């Protein structure tokens, strides 16, 4: 994993992060409505701690491999995505370790996650515990698992 760097995102990353979200295979079929018009805008990136995992190796070529967004005021993980071609390489785990470190540094005791149902197992494997279920609302017509990372 020495060829992966995690850095703070900038407004210049907006298009790349938006493409990563909209192109995610995890959001095909019934889940497509959640991301089809989603935008990770520059103001959002500048206002919230958003971090990207970038490949430094010849294989990664400086490409954004994944990212997360932490809402410190709400103590919530808002976004977490790994590029389809980079899944299974440990990048998601690396991002969650980084996120919990950032949360701890910000003085948070825990971080809430309302997960995309297919991602629940990933969050459990990386240390989250399930705390409940969030009912359907708006364009989301399915229950979502609610989880928590304890960081204190």
Describe the structure.
24% of the residues lie in helices and 29% in strands. It has helices spanning 14-22, 42-47, 91-105, 120-125, and strands at residues 4-8, 50-55, 64-71, 76-82, 110-114, 129-134, 144-150. The longest helix is centred in the middle third of the chain and has 15 residues, at 91-105.
- The SSE order reads EHHEEEHEHEE
What class do helices, strands and sheet pairing give? Answer: alpha+beta
Strand order of the largest sheet: 1-2-3-4-5-7-6
Helix content: 10-25%
For the biggest sheet, the summary is: 7 strands, mixed
**Strand coverage percent:** 25-35%
Distance between termini?
A: 26 Å
**Number of strand elements:** 7
Question: How many helical stretches?
Answer: 4
Task: Map the helices and strands.
Layout: E1 4-8, H1 14-22, H2 42-47, E2 50-55, E3 64-71, E4 76-82, H3 91-105, E5 110-114, H4 120-125, E6 129-134, E7 144-150
Short description:
With 152 residues, the chain is of the alpha+beta class. Helices cover 24% and strands 29% of the residues.
Observed structural traits:
152 residues; alpha+beta; 7-stranded mixed beta sheet; 4 helices; 24% helix; globular
């Amino acid at each position: 994993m020495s060829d992966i760097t995690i850095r703070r995102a900038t407004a210049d990353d907006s298009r790349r992060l938006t493409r990563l979200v909209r192109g995610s295979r995890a959001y095909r079929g019934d889940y497509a409505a959640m991301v089809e018009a989603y935008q990770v805008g520059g103001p959002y990136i500048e206002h919230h701690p958003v971090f990207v995992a970038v490949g430094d190796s010849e294989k990664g070529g400086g490409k954004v491999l994944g990212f997360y967004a932490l809402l410190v005021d709400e103590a919530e993980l808002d976004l977490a995505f790994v590029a389809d071609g980079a899944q299974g390489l440990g990048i998601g785990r690396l991002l969650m370790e980084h996120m919990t470190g950032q949360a701890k540094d910000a003085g948070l005791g825990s971080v809430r996650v309302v997960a995309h149902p297919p991602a629940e197992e990933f969050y459990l494997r990386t240390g989250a515990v399930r705390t409940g279920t969030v009912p359907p609302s708006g364009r989301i017509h399915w229950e979502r698992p609610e989880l928590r990372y304890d960081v204190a």
